[in-house]
Amino acid sequence: MIDSTQATTPGAGPVFPPGRYGRRREPGRRRRWLPVFTAIAVALGALALTLRLYAQYGNPPYEASVIRVTETADDHVTIEFAVTVPAGGAASCTVRALASSGLQVGRDTVEVRAAAGQTRVVSTYRLATTGPARVADVPGCGPADRR
């Protein structure tokens, strides 16, 4: 019968013959500043990227709103709208007209310019349509192309 109550003691570790595997180094001090420095560098890089992308894509200065639709007919619609632009800047706005079915019956791009120091431009535009329009709107504006 096999006795299963043998006690084992852990050894002191492997013993290597002297000179055979080279000199064994003692464990050195850990460089605790390296992970801290890396974490700070990554955080600063993420912050810089966030600020750059926000400046490029976030909180656009171009904002349009429809004031009123002054005239509708079977072949055109006249729309009055206001655009907020950077001081003295220009904007390129998309103007569209929709039929009562929701089908787009007219679309065009309109460029508006603000006077020096002015940030709000009111514009009236006559949009040609392929049928009677029920709704006219300005879905968006952006910076005008510089030519």
Helix/strand layout:
Elements: H1 33-57, E1 63-72, E2 76-84, E3 90-98, E4 104-113, E5 120-128, E6 135-143
Antiparallel strand pairs: 1-2, 2-5, 3-4, 3-6
The coarse silhouette is elongated
Largest sheet: 3 strands, antiparallel
Measured on Cα atoms, how large is the radius of gyration?
A: 36 Å
Specify the helix fraction band.
10-25%
Uncertain parts: none
Mean pLDDT: 85
**How widely separated are the two ends?**
99 Å
| Helix/strand structural class | alpha+beta
Description:
The chain is an alpha+beta fold and 147 residues long. It has one helix and six strands. The chain is elongated. The mean pLDDT is 85.
List the defining traits of the structure above.
147 residues, 17% helix, three-stranded antiparallel sheet, 1 helix, elongated, alpha+beta
What is the gist of this entry?
The protein has one helix spanning 33-57; strands at 63-72, 76-84, 90-98, 104-113, 120-128, 135-143. With 147 residues, the protein is of the alpha+beta class.
